[in-house]
Design brief:
Blueprint (H helix, E strand, L loop, with lengths): L6 H13 E5 L5 E8 L4 H16 L6 E3 L4 E7 L1 H8 L16 H5 L3 H12 E8 L2 E10 L2 H13 L5 E8 L7 E10 L1 H10 L5 H14 L12
Antiparallel strand pairs: 1-2, 2-4, 3-4, 5-6, 6-8, 7-8
Length: about 230
C-alpha cells in the first residue's frame, strides 16, 4: 500500500505529536508507538486510533493493556511507515522540544487535521462552575514551544481567540526539577463554538464532556401547569 499525505495521516501525525514516538532499538527495529490512559482512552484507541492505523498500513494492530502502569499502547514494526513519519521531521527517540508543524501540511491545507489529532491526545475541555453556570475552557499542553506557538497562531488565524503562555510542571522523577511547559487556552462559550466548528473533538471522552456541557447549558423545559410569566 502506497503511503499518502492525506487527512487521516495528518490526524495520526497530530496524535503522534501528542502521545506517540518513533523508537529505534539496538537491533535496528523501527517501532511506531502510541500510548494512552487505561482509565479513559480505550474507546479512543478502539474507535479512532486503530481504524486510522489500519487505513494507513492495512493491518489491524492489537491494543496492549498495561495495568501496572495504568496505560494502553499500540506499537508495531513497519519500516516504510516509520520512515514516512520520520521524513516530515518527526524525531526518533525522545521528542522533547523538537516538534513542529511541517511546512508541507500548510501547503496541503492539512494543518487543521493535525491539530485535531493533537487535541485528541494533549487537549481537554475544562468546565468551571461559576455560581451555577458552567464556564468552558479548551486547553492543550506541551513542552515543544515552537509547536504550541504554531498551533496557537493557526487557531487565532481561523478566528478562534486563544492565548499561549508558559507554565511549569514538576517532572515525575522524585527530584525537584521542573520542566518548561507551554499551554494553549481557549476561553468562553463563543470561542468553544468556533473551536467545535473549525476543529472539533474526536476523542470520545472529550465528546462526552462536551455533551455534558450542552446538556447542562440547555434552557429548562416548562412543565405542564407552569407559566413562564
Amino acid at each position: 500500500m502506497a503511503l499518502k499525505l492525506n487527512k487521516n495521516f495528518a490526524i495520526l501525525y497530530g496524535i503522534m505529536l501528542g502521545d506517540g514516538c518513533l523508537s529505534l532499538t539496538s537491533k535496528n527495529k523501527k517501532i511506531v508507538f502510541i500510548a494512552g490512559s487505561l482509565r479513559d482512552d480505550i474507546p479512543f484507541f478502539e474507535k479512532v486510533v486503530k481504524p486510522i492505523i489500519k487505513n494507513q498500513i492495512d493491518k489491524d494492530i492489537p491494543i496492549r493493556y498495561k495495568p501496572e502502569t495504568g496505560s494502553i499502547q499500540l506499537n508495531f514494526v513497519k519500516n516504510n511507515f516509520f520512515d514516512f513519519i520520520h521524513s516530515f521531521g518527526f524525531p526518533i527517540g525522545k521528542k522533547g522540544n523538537q516538534l513542529f508543524i511541517p511546512k508541507v501540511f500548510y501547503e496541503r491545507n492539512l494543518v487543521k487535521y493535525l491539530i485535531i489529532g493533537f487535541f485528541a491526545t494533549d487537549g481537554s475541555l475544562v468546565l468551571t462552575d461559576n455560581n451555577g453556570t458552567l464556564y468552558p475552557r479548551v486547553e492543550a499542553n506541551g513542552i515543544a514551544k515552537v509547536l504550541i506557538k504554531e498551533i496557537s497562531d493557526y487557531l487565532n488565524l481561523v478566528g478562534i481567540k486563544c492565548n499561549c503562555y508558559q507554565a511549569k510542571r514538576r517532572v515525575q522523577t522524585g527530584y525537584p526539577n521542573r520542566q518548561e511547559q507551554y499551554r494553549i487556552q481557549i476561553n468562553g462559550k463563543e470561542n468553544l463554538k468556533k473551536f467545535i466548528k473549525e476543529i472539533g473533538f474526536i476523542n470520545p471522552k472529550q465528546i462526552e464532556r462536551l455533551n455534558y456541557y450542552y446538556k447542562k447549558m440547555a434552557p429548562p423545559r416548562l412543565e405542564l401547569g407552569t407559566s413562564s410569566l
